[in-house]
Structure formats: structure tokens, C-alpha cells
Amino acid sequence: MPVRLDGYTFERSGRAHKKYAVTLASGRTVHFGDRRYQHYRDRIGLYSGQDHGDKERRRRYYARHGLEASRESPKWFSHRYLW
Fold first, then answer.
1. What is the pLDDT of residues 44-82, one digit of tens each?
2. Of the candidates 11, 9, 19, 26, which has an alpha carbon nearest to the alpha carbon of residue 82?
3. Contact (CB, 8 A) for 50 and 40
4. Considering only CA atoms, which of 44, 50, 49 is closest in space to residue 9?
5. What CA–CA distance (Å, rounded) separates 83 from 80?
6. So where are the chain's domains?
7. Which residue in 19, 30, 66, 82 could disulfide with 39, CB within 3.0 to 4.6 Å?
8. Residues with Cβ < 8 Å from 37, sequence gap 6 or more?
């Protein structure tokens, strides 16, 4: 069941271990998130059962992965919609 949010259409990814797939206007599909791990808050909602809401854990995630991400990369979508 696709979910529309912020002009993007998200659906469950068919790729191993990935949570979401989003198809961009260019036709490219971006897969992001890992089903095996929790996240801070799922804005899309299909995996909200894996929300942990721990601000310290979120801070450590960004310390490991950095804050900067190029727009419409898997990292950008993870930061915006999961963390």
C-alpha cells in the first residue's frame, strides 16, 4: 500500500533488508532503511512499531553517520523520514 508524503510516494521495499522504496521524478528508485534495526521515528508509518524515541541514541546515530547528505540519496531519506 503506497503512502504519499511531501510529494513522494513510498512503499515497502522488495530489496533484502530494506524498509522503503521511493521512486523519484527521474525514474530512479531509492531504497533506504534497514528492517533489522530500529529508528528514532518513522514519519511514513509502515514501520512505526520500530520507533525507539531515544534522543541519546539519535545523537549517536548522527555522530556515526554525519548530518550532511546529498538530496534524494538513501541517507537523505533515512535522515528525513526515519531519524
1. 999 999 999 999 999 999 999 998 889 899 999 999 999
2. 19
3. no
4. 44
5. 6
6. 3-81
7. 82
8. 50
